[in-house]
Specification:
Radius of gyration: 16 Å
Structural class: mainly alpha
Order of helices and strands: HHEEHHHHH
Number of strands: 2
Strand order of the largest sheet: 1-2
Largest sheet: 2 strands, antiparallel
Helix content: 55-70%
Distance between the termini: 46 Å
Shape: globular
């Protein structure tokens, strides 16, 4: 009989499950890294992620990237962020989707307009103000 893996228990053990602000912070940081900083461009220190890479898939890639970026907005909504911050996040996703929808060359402006990084900063600002215990000190 094969062993089964309880993914819910694994995510809970790793602190990635639930609506606790610290778990939300870890999830949004992970998603931002996946979308904006997954790979380093050889010979530079510049990072790119799936958001830029998906722009090379006509039409569908931009939609997939927007849906993945919308997940950050969903997390922001669940944190009870103010509507003005939530609207800024949605605006960033919209601009990113429009830039990415330009066939092939859409990756260039999308490379410079990192909506997910912008959205992460907005959410982290809220978390730092309202849930300071979730902050991670690097160093």
């Amino acid at each position: 009989m094969a062993d089964t893996i309880d993914f819910n228990a694994l995510t809970a053990k790793a602190g990635l499950a639930g609506t606790h602000p610290a778990a939300v912070r870890r999830r949004i940081e992970g998603m931002e890294k996946l979308l904006e900083g997954l790979f380093v461009i050889p010979g530079t220190s510049t990072r790119v992620g799936l958001d830029v890479l998906l722009d090379f898939i006509p039409v569908g890639g931009s939609v997939i990237a927007a849906v993945m970026g919308s997940w950050l907005a969903w997390e922001a909504r669940n944190l009870g962020m103010p509507k003005h911050a939530y609207l800024r996040i949605a605006g960033n996703i919209g601009v990113d989707a429009l830039l990415g929808a330009i066939p092939l060359v859409g990756a260039v402006p999308d490379f410079f307009f990192r909506s997910n990084t912008r959205n992460l900063k907005i959410i982290k600002k809220h978390l730092d103000k309202h849930h300071p215990g979730t902050a991670v000190i690097d160093g």
